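Co-fold these.
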Amino acid sequence: MKNHKVIVVGGGAAGLQAAATLKELGVEPLIIEREMQTGGKVRRWHRLFPDFTSASEVLATLEKNAEGIETLCGVMVDSIDATGVTLAGGRHIKADAMVVATGFDLFRAELKEEYGYGIYDNVYTSADIEDMLNGDGVRLKDGSAPGRVAFLHCVGSRDEKVGQPHCSRLCCITAVKQAMELRESFPDAEIYNYYMDIRMFGAGYEEMYRSAQEDGEVRFVRGRISEASPTIDGRVQIKAEDTLLGRPVKMTVDMLVLAVGMTAAESNGRLGVGLQSGGFIAPRDLFTGAVYSPDAENIFYAGCATAPKNIGETLNEATAAAVKAAEFLLEK
Amino acid sequence: MDGFLRYYDHFVLPFTVGMLVLFTVIIYKYVRWFVRMPKEDRRLVARGIFTKKTAQATGEVACEALGHRKIWRVNPTLGYMHMSLALGWFLLIVVGWIEATVHFSGELTAPHTHVFFKFFGPTSHPTMTGKFINFMMDFLLLFVLSGVALAWFKRLRSKALGMRRTTRHTLWDRVAMTALWMIFPVRLVAESAASGIDGSQSFLTGAIGRWMVDEFGIAQVFNISAVAWWVYSLVLGAFFLAMPFSRYMHIFTEIPLIFMRRYGVRSGERASSFDHFQIEACSQCGVCIDPCQLQADAGINHVQSAYYLRDRRYNRLRREVAENCLMCGRCEAKCPVGIESNTLRLNSRSRLNDQPAEGRYEYLRGVDGSCGEGRTGYFAGCMTMLTPATLSAMEKVFAAAGEDVWWADRNGGACCGRPLRLLGEIAAAQRMTDHNVELILRQGVTILVVSCPICLRAFRGEPRLADIEILHHSQYILRLVEQGRILMSSDTMSYVYHDPCELGRGCGIYDEPREVLRRLGTLAEVSQNREHAFCCGGSLANAEIDSTQQDAIARTLMAQFAATDARVIVTACPLCKKMLARHSSRARVADISEVAAARAVAAATP
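Predicted complex below.
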């Protein structure tokens, strides 16, 4: 096996962008992706916030830029060190530098069993909604259109009880975007968002949130849902506290959507690089060393492997990591 | 009185003073503690004294205080060390007393004449009995010395005796311990010197005495003897003086504790004078340190039962030490003295946190989320509401069995109170328990099935519910199967079972869940199971540790399960289920009700 210049671990948005940038800079990278095709989590999205750009358009651009780059799909990287990567099964591939772009895992909504995901009908995650939007559209289990929908923010984020103390940042805007998409599909539906804080950090996000309230008539209730239970007619009863009114709320909805957070990739633990307390990979520092590894000078980080990020931030970081990797090879 | 004066030398003074102080302090302490005990507890003692319990207690004292049987079970080397010191010393005193009494023909003499008999009396006896006694005394001394040698070795290298960690001690403890370690080597020198002067033939002291005379000359041996007896008396006196203020107080305190325990006296959720007997019966042996998962996984080294009891004894208990405990009971299960450290810790917490509950929780009066009718009650508990798969499973089980069920908290209910109780808020907890007890009694059920082991423990400890059979759902499901009311099919699925602390060590329910699983498929076991099972880390009793520390505790537990290759990790507590589920990547985690309900069908009607 030839000695690769740079191995990019992960073929999602960050990996594709990093690989494309390296190629542009004249370094031939190798992408190793554990799934059967590249594209990562972006592939599952329908449209992106805050302007409803089609996710497939963005992905098409990323893939076009990365065209012709050597890619191993369906191959799992077990660990990395300064000499290269070791694949699951033990094979070692040598490289001069590595860009780790392993992304994140979606929070398993089953762990918040009180919301009944996987137990009751008509409880979905935000990822399921994207699947439905990519398919035949959003429908209840019996195929009918929902009359009342509740979105719940912060499922698996900012929740010590499930060991996820961090904010996943994107679930707020995702729930708002999906609420507006449902409004589009079901003009007469009642749509609620249950939240504890609304965090609209990106350009255009706050505007989208405002538009959801004013134009979309999406109702926002400050209070986390404490538990859900099924009704005899297949609907879901939710209990919450409206903390602005200081009143308990009991509501029966046709559909409960859980805005699931981003958790550190489970595979991070095996990689052999330093982790932060929540399991995300630890960069050298959070300011001027965000793409560097403190473990080895030829390992670089990009994207959600180190913290939850949106696509724009991820692509910028991937570019930066690729440039720094190329610089490292040049100086060597 | 003649004997008192005839056998006297100044060197006996330190010993005599020490002994007098020792017994004065001990008697003062015991009388004071006993008199201050609640009247009901003293009545229990009075009622128990002339029953067979006294004989049983005497037997237990021999086994435990002398033989250290329970330490033997945990760790044989450590058991031998403690036994050689306790039993060896005890027999030395008894045999020495016989030897002296025979020699003085029953003449009334001071205690020091027995203790320093080899100084005042002859070191050897020509008769067969005398030779036997000589041999015994040397043999017993050797026996004790072997224990002392092990104790020295343990201080240097605790791992060698199978203890990863050993206790850190107070100044009193260090004084007493140093004295104790010197007593027997010095005694060996003193008795050997006396034997050498006498020309005794005994195998140990006689032999060393002869060697001393050969080596140093008889005049020098006289000097050695004079110094050695003084030092021996001094270290004995120092040990006795320090003992009632040190951990060695356990030597005597375990005895009244064993008796009172046999008579039925227990510590409670509010502190009582009886607690002193438990606290001072702790030998600080440190057997409780290794099983503590806070120590092993979370790096917390100052809260274990030995330290908690020590701090409480010396009135320097800090809130954090009382509260930083999972109350899982692993250490209690291993305690050689059987100290109820969880109960004691609970009453420390109640002293810190309990406050009157009048006027609080008035809203409870209106809470009644019960529904259905039946002689069988079902109390899910608030944590089960958060694991609704268990609710669905129980619904299916009840339907398959054709049971008419009264659901106590179907549409919401009040907490059983135990979580607050564990944090020491006894009065508030009692209000919640009262609310539930009244609700349950009003309905008149004969059986109450409970899904949460925390609630189960709360209700089982409630005297007003004594006429109702209170079962965990694992027990109930097994009963339905055994009675033929539901049928369960088995296949090749592999299970491993996690014992929840409150269900296992708390309620003694280990077998029923396993029996259910054996009827479903194959059951693997982990090494730390049943009364030694690990806590999942999610205990409600500890509000001190953070989630990363909880995670560290859970990971050790999960590693045990992963080693079994079982495909389903089954537990029987909603809290454990949540904790295990988020740490399990491959194996499925389920409550026992879920796996049972998935295979349960109604028995064909005859």
